[in-house]
Amino acid sequence: MADVTMRIWRGDATGGDFENYTVAQQEGEVVLDVIHRIQATDAPDLACRWNCKAGKCGSCAAEINGKPRLMCMTRMDQLPEGPVTVTPMKTFPIIRDLVTDVSFNFAMAEKVPALLPPPMPADGYRMFQEDVERGQEFRKCIECFMCQDVCHVIRDHEENKQHYAGPRFFIRYAELEMHPLDTNDRRDLIREEMGLGYCNITKCCTEVCPEHIKITDNAIIPLKERVVDAQYDPIAWLGRKIRRKTKRTASEAAVQPAP
Amino acid sequence: MEINSPYEHHDYDVLVIGAGGAGLRAVIEAKQQGLKVGLITKSLLGKAHTVMAEGGMAAAMGNVYPEDNWMVHFRDTMRGGKMLNNYRMAELHAKEAPERVMELEQWGALFDRTKDGKILQRDFGGHRYARLAHVGDRTGLELIRTLQQKVVSMGTDVFMECKVLRLVHDDSGKVAGCVAYWRATGEFVTFSAKAVILATGGVGKSWKFTSNSWEGTGDGHAMALWAGAELIDMECIQFHPTGMVWPLSVRGILVTEGVRGDGGILKNSDGERFMFNYVADMFRAETAESPEEADRWYDDHTAGRRPPELLPRDEVARAINSEVKAGRGSPHGGVFLDIASRRTPEFIRRRLPSMYHQFMELAGVDITREMMEIGPTCHYIMGGVKVDAETAATAVAGLFAAGEVAGGMHGANRLGGNSLSDLIVFGRRAGMGAVEYVQGGQGATGFNLEEVDAAVKEALAPFERESGENPYDIQRDLQEMMQANVGIIRTASEIDEAIEKLEEFTDRVKNIKVKGGRAYNPGWNLATDLPSMLTVSKCTARGAQQRKESRGGHTREDFPKADPNFGKINFAHSMPSGGGWTSEIKTLESPLLEIPEELNALLEEGK
User: Fold this and answer.
1) Class of A103-253 in CATH
2) How many CB atoms lie within 10 A of CB A23?
3) What is the dihedral of CA A46, A51, A54, A58, to 10 degrees?
4) Domain-by-domain residue ranges, chain A?
5) Under a CB-based contact definition with an 8 Å cutoff, are residues B382 and B81 in contact?
């Protein structure tokens, strides 16, 4: 097979530039294979994240020819001919080369009020397949953070990270809100602090999801309806004013120790 | 305690190293008891190898077959392990797994359901009844996400992308913490703790074809040995029968046993369903004799006996190996796994979505229409740190171990589905053991900074050499050597050669030169993993040399049968505490625990 030129961004927070590597290709290879070959030969200090190499852990997200992709699931023979450009995810600060600081996402995860189910009966909870299926779709998420990377609310506006959770966390909130056992109420939090309203449903997140989760249609839109209903239904509003269920923090909502 | 560490320093009651299923479960337990807990992981949180587990977690809940119970699960586990197991671990595991699985649902897990709303259970190799709680074929992801979200909601200190180099003792020899570095910056950091729990997973990265990620370098196994603990059963390595074989770049990636549990069969190049020719005497009474009988079993386990495709993994892997050797393999050196001709496309896509996805995208194969090419891949180490079943305590005071890094639970071969349940049963027990130890006031009272200095010096040496070898070259040669010499089928001359070569590799590692700086430098990171990889490989080779029989995940061409005398012992490896990683390893026979009569009776039943 013909050699291929890889244009890889190398650098750190202080700056950097593209470096070209010309490498031989083998049948059936993915981008991550080629990156690994470069590491093993020309550039042992080329930084990239990866773990499972099978599309299950979401570690190796990068922008390939300008589009967020998992490097382990992108076959070289399906990219257009010519040089292949690999850059780190743009939305997150650079650590080195293809590795970015994704701590924004872990900070958002800490703010999610936990599931609050009733006490578990001795023989376990009863739930039905139809009821768990909606949540199961969102729990397929492998936390590659490509939906966060591509979301223009934070991709182009660093300042929005202060008050916007992003698509990954909207599916997390949707999952909890749709959970058959949950009794916690997160609607005010989602509207006031998680910035659901900033999303103007351009579906960029859905397009890049490697798990094909219908983020916009199945999570964000239903979540918007739910939150807005709660906000503008006068009877519901009054009811909540009178016996307002305070949103519980994650640690308060953590259930009792296991027996 | 006043510790004048020259580096960033943190102090905890309990320090957990490794954030897969076992580590996370240990954190939950220790935090629920009110202790101050720190969690260290080499990767980001939620990326540990647990996410790769596909099929499910075994627990005798009896939701599909009410006749299932812990006694049957115990029996299956012991027989699958060829009786080399620590019986007490197998017993506790079988008894406690159902409760551990159910409690995951109060933390947010959503398992697939039975018609009456209970947790659905699926069939897997070596389990008499459908026993695996699962979510399609992504059960490991569900487990790690559930535990991760629970741990985060409890407000846990998590140190991500932090690589631990060495355990540190106090003056009396108790484990007192560890020394590590941040991968992002290369800066060192020390942790003191009253108790340390190792939950570092496996060692598969020392083989060429493996389902393991870069993390599986045996760090915990090696650090425990260096710190004075014992390793047992290191020769028992599970080669999972079904890894991908083509394209070469994906060779080794796991294909879930769930494919066979859900009806998939194995065929050779003649189109023959060959597993019927490989039923060992031990399993003959419970295995179908004909395809017709086997096919009846899928719908009703009383209408026929189990298909031979669902024998324990060691049996199936050896059978595939024999077919390929006999010239009946697939074009790329595996055999065929066929579910396309057995189930509808809708069924396959619903039950095995990520397998469908994986083959479609990586191999261009549509598994609803075509057969998969598969072959054995290095998957799991049964061996590990010798622990006390109840508390997960090791031979070194203050050190605990749980999950794949611990040995004994699975004997010579692990049943599919018993790993995820192992993580939550013994992760919790390690947490309890550490809490009890700390609350009993037995924790370490000092922190040996000389050990820190030695580890730092060793880690930095590859930068200071004028010239030397690329660590990637050493890794590649090691993987090829271990695959060839200590692979699925072993023989004396090859093992002896491996032991010699491992000494040569040791010299090569002492001569590594690393390019670039310390900040996020994978070449340097690998250089610091190689001492662990070599240490565990040495133990595996030594165990393989001395176990002159074939049993479970250890097959000797020159000793093809099991020997009852070897069935009574483990090989235990140890090293003088406080020495360097190249100190001499001592390997001794260590007798198995005696099984009480009432449990033995369970094992005899239906033999």
Assistant:
1) mainly alpha
2) 18
3) -90
4) 4-100, 103-253
5) yes
Domain-terminating residue out of B378, B402, B421? B378
* Structure confidence by residue, pLDDT tens digits, B338-390: 999 999 999 999 999 989 999 999 999 999 999 999 999 999 999 999 999 99
Strands B335-338 and B372-381 turn out to be antiparallel
> B95, B112, B92: which is closest to B60 by C-alpha?
B95
Q: Are B284 and B443 in contact (CB under 8 A)?
A: no
Fold of A4-100: Ubiquitin-like (UB roll) (3.10.20)
Kindly report the nearest CA distance between residue A238 and chain B, in angstroms.
Answer: 31
Cα B480 to Cα B474: distance, rounded to the nearest angstrom: 10
3-class DSSP state of B72: helix
Residue B64 lies in a domain: no
Q: CA of B30: which chain A residue's CA is closest?
A: A257
Residue type, B30: A
Comparing CB atoms, the residue among A51, A96, A257 nearest residue B520 is A96
A208 neighbors A225 (Cβ within 8 angstroms): no
Tell me the two tokens of residue A93: 């600060």
Cβ separation of A44 and B44 shorter than 8 Å? Answer: no
Residue B432 has what pLDDT? 98
Among A8, A38, A57, the residue to mutate for chain B (most B Cβ within 10 A): A57
Same domain, B501 and B372: no
- How many other CB atoms are found less than 10 A from the CB of residue B115? 8
Could you say which residues of chain B have pLDDT below 50? Answer: none
B519-532 pLDDT, tens digit each? 999 999 999 999 99
Q: What is the pLDDT of residue B160?
A: 98
Subunit contact A126:B117, Cβ cutoff 8 A: yes
Tokens of B489: 């089928």
pLDDT value for A253: 47
The amino acid sitting at B424 is I
Q: Is A249 exposed, middle or buried (0-12, 13-18, 19+ CB in 10 A)?
A: middle
Instruction: Please tell me whether residues B470 and B372 are part of one structural domain.
Output: no
Q: What is the pLDDT of residues A92-123, one digit of tens each?
A: 999 999 999 999 999 999 999 999 999 999 99
Catalytic-labelled residue, pool B93, B138, B183, B260: B260
Q: Max CA-CA distance within chain B?
A: 72
Structural tokens at position B246: 């083509």
Q: Is the pLDDT confidence value at A246 over 60?
A: no
Does the beta-carbon distance from B249 to A29 stay under 8 Å?
Answer: yes
- Which among A26, A48, A139 has the least Cβ separation from residue B249? A26
What local confidence, expressed as pLDDT, does residue A237 receive?
67
The length of chain B in residues reads 607
